[in-house]
Structures are given as structure tokens and as C-alpha cells.
Design brief:
single chain; alpha+beta; Immunoglobulin-like; 7-stranded antiparallel beta sheet; 5-stranded antiparallel beta sheet; 27% strand; elongated
Length: 403
């Protein structure tokens, strides 16, 4: 309907700014050096080789036929006069008053959806109901709209078994969403549009899991050997052993095949040590995909980086950091050693449970990920490995955190 409505019959070159060519690309037209053509009328074709029923014809022709009549009977303010030599280019010129065109179309669409479609329905015309436009953002919020006002938007998170009316942004989590528009009287439906959940670059149904015991019983070990980007298990191996006491979450990081131990010796606590050689832990209490979590980093020279990350879209497109600098309230301890002969380094870390507002971790659920940065030589590019990797080469895709 929009494409037909924006057609300018008395100034054909103008259409280069409001439409694409048959290949879907912008194009350029120079207004010929001759008088404007005299337009005696307009017609619209319906290609009927695949149309088998009256209902199919109605859906193909309406409401486009009404938009065609609008352009034939009324010259809009945004239709420009014929002007020989003027160039219209869909990629570079801006001669058509687009704001006026948009306002005019919105008025027309509202009249169609809220008034004229009901008249067509009374005449028995089974017109086309346009499907909704929709997206699911990184936080799982569904946003939807419709080209034609006064039509209902319905959505389903279980492949059409149940439909719910959409009235405002709603959290659908990681579900794939089906959407459909419904005419005002409920008699006609659009085709189903499908919106996929955000792709965070990992398989959410195949996340690694740890069952973490008390330290008096033993440890659970996460292995960092998969490369971010490719997910291949060819990354220099590191392990993180995890257990808990009544007061601390205990972590032992151990890196192997370390070639360089690259650090910036001028860096102190909470400087950007991730630019060099580090091992990292991302930790959140709870079973859901976290938007708030602890990021802990340790370098081979025992310099630490500690902060709470606020990541509302779960993909780091928007973020904030609260650094942990109060070492008396949060007595984090670390003891780091390295053995260059065996190409290893190790850090024993204690994180107080008070950082996570948990009295006893017994029976609780957590989301975690463990990562390592690596340099094969001092002149090499930084490489990244993880316990639970993703294809996006991002440490902060929280739906990819292990459990």
C-alpha cells in the first residue's frame, strides 16, 4: 500500500527518491528537457496467472486499489512540479519533502485501518491484512507495530498453539515469536511473521554445567580450551577449580602452554589488564541469563581487576561498571605463582560470598563463565578462549554463561 501511495504520476522522475528499481537498488533519473506529459488517467494491473479464487483476487488488489485511487484523484502537497534537468537520485538527493509524505501517509493509513476497511468488509471484500513488524531486543523484550492502525497484533511463543494480544512491549525471553495481525472485526488474518530470538553466538541448550561442592568434599573443574569465534577446542588449555565454604567462593586458575606472560608492569588494580595476559571469571547468582554480574580478572603478576557489570541487553551493547575498590568490606585475596620452565601460571583466589548477597550457597543456582586471553608471542595478536564460548568473540554474551 505504501509503495502505491507514494507514486507521483505527474512527475515520474520524482519516484526515484521514493522507490527502488526492480533489482531493489536506488536509481537515478534526470528530468527530460521537455514539457511535462499530460496524464489522462491511471490504471493498476493485477497479474492473475496464480490467482484461482475471488478471495485471492481481493487480497491481491485491496487495499492497494484504494491507494491507487487516492493518487489518481488527489495531487498531494509533496508531489513536486515537473522541472526539466532536475536530477532525482534515491541514494543522494533529498528533494521530495519526506516529512510531509510520511504525515500524509499516516493520515491515509489511519483512515484505511479505522474506517475504510470496515466498509470493504461490509461489501464482502476479503482484503489483505498486512503482517506486523516486530523485533526482540537483547533483553528479551518484544516490540511490534502494524502498518494499518486499528488492527490487532497477536503473538505466540509456542508456535501458534496459543495467541495473546500485543498491546505494549512484553518480555518473551529467549522464545521464538510468531506474530499475526487481525482485522478490526476479527474475520481476516495476516500471514504469520516470525521473529527469532537474539543470536548470542552459542547453543543455549548445550551450555556446560558444574556441580560445585563444599571445599571439604572436593572441587568442580571447568576447562578453558575452546576458542571464541570458531568454538574449536584448540585453544591453549587452562582450568578453573571451584568450591565453596561458609564465607568464600574459592577459585584456582591454572594456565598451561603459556609462552609470554605479557603484562603491563605499570598497571595497578582495576587498570585495563584485559589488554594483556589474564584469566577471568564472570559470576552471577541465579539461574536466569544475568544482566548484573561480577567480573574478576587476574594477571600473572597478581594484579586484579574487579567490578560489577550492568549489562541490560545481555550483549554488552549497553553497559556500566561499578568497580570493587573497598577491600575491607570485600576482602578479596589472591596468590599467584608462575613456572616458566613448565609454561604454567596459577592463581588461588577467594571471593567473599557477601559480594553476592548470599548467606549460604548450599543448593543455590549460579551462572558463570571462565575465560583466558593469550599471546603466542610478544608480537602476536591477542587470542581468546572460554569454558563456554560464543561465535561473537565477546566475553559478555550472558545467555552463553555456563550453569
Amino acid at each position: 500500500m505504501y509503495k502505491v501511495f507514494t507514486f507521483a504520476p505527474e512527475n515520474l522522475p520524482q519516484n526515484a527518491e521514493t522507490a527502488l528499481n526492480i533489482q531493489g537498488n536506488p536509481y537515478t533519473v534526470t528530468t527530460p528537457e521537455k514539457p511535462a506529459p499530460v496524464i489522462r488517467g491511471m490504471q493498476g494491473q493485477t497479474w492473475s496467472e496464480t490467482i484461482r479464487t475471488d478471495a485471492q483476487y481481493d487480497e491481491m488488489a485491496f487495499p492497494r486499489a484504494v491507494a491507487l485511487a487516492e493518487r489518481a484523484w488527489h495531487r498531494a502537497d509533496w508531489e513536486l512540479d515537473w522541472s526539466p534537468g532536475v536530477v532525482f537520485d534515491g541514494a543522494s538527493t533529498d528533494l521530495v519533502p519526506k516529512d510531509d509524505l510520511a504525515s500524509d501517509y499516516n493520515t491515509f493509513a489511519s483512515a484505511m485501518g479505522c474506517r475504510e476497511m470496515a466498509k470493504l468488509a461490509k461489501l464482502g471484500v476479503t482484503y489483505r491484512v498486512p503482517p506486523p513488524g516486530a523485533k526482540v531486543d537483547g533483553s528479551g523484550l518484544l516490540f511490534a507495530n502494524t502498518e494499518m492502525p486499528c488492527t490487532k497484533i497477536m503473538y505466540s511463543t509456542n508456535e501458534g498453539l496459543n495467541w495473546i494480544e500485543y498491546t505494549e512491549p512484553v518480555n518473551v525471553g529467549s522464545a521464538n515469536v510468531w506474530l499475526q495481525s487481525q482485522s478490526g472485526d476479527g474475520a481476516l488474518l495476516s500471514r504469520v511473521a516470525k521473529t527469532m530470538a537474539p543470536d548470542h553466538g552459542c547453543l543455549s541448550n548445550a551450555l556446560p554445567e558444574l556441580s560445585v561442592p563444599r571445599c571439604s568434599i572436593g572441587v568442580a573443574t571447568a576447562t578453558i580450551d575452546k576458542r571464541l569465534g570458531t568454538l574449536e577446542p584448540d585453544f591453549p588449555k587452562a582450568t578453573v577449580s571451584v568450591c565453596f565454604t561458609d564465607e568464600y567462593l574459592e577459585l584456582i586458575f591454572k594456565a598451561t602452554q603459556e609462552k609470554t606472560y605479557l603484562v603491563n608492569e605499570t598497571f595497578a588494580r582495576n587498570d585495563p589488564i584485559w589488554k594483556w595476559t589474564v584469566m577471568e571469571a564472570f559470576i552471577a547468582l541465579g539461574n536466569g541469563d544475568p544482566t548484573h554480574y561480577l567480573e574478576f580478572e587476574v594477571a600473572p603478576n597478581n594484579v586484579l581487576w574487579t567490578g560489577f557489570i550492568h549489562n541490560p541487553y545481555k550483549d554488552f551493547t549497553s553497559k556500566a561498571t561499578a568497580f570493587v575498590d573497598d577491600h575491607e568490606t570485600y576482602p578479596i585475596t589472591s596468590f599467584t605463582t608462575r613456572d616458566e620452565a613448565s609454561q604454567t601460571w596459577q592463581s588461588e583466589v577467594s571471593l567473599p560470598l557477601t559480594m553476592f548477597n548470599v548467606g549460604s550457597p548450599e543448593g543455590s543456582s549460579w551462572r558463570m563463565n571462565f575465560l583466558r586471553t593469550y599471546y603466542a608471542s610478544e608480537s602476536a595478536e591477542q587470542e581468546y578462549g572460554a569454558w563456554s564460548p560464543n561465535k561473537l568473540i565477546s566475553f559478555h554474551q550472558t545467555p552463553c554463561f555456563g550453569r
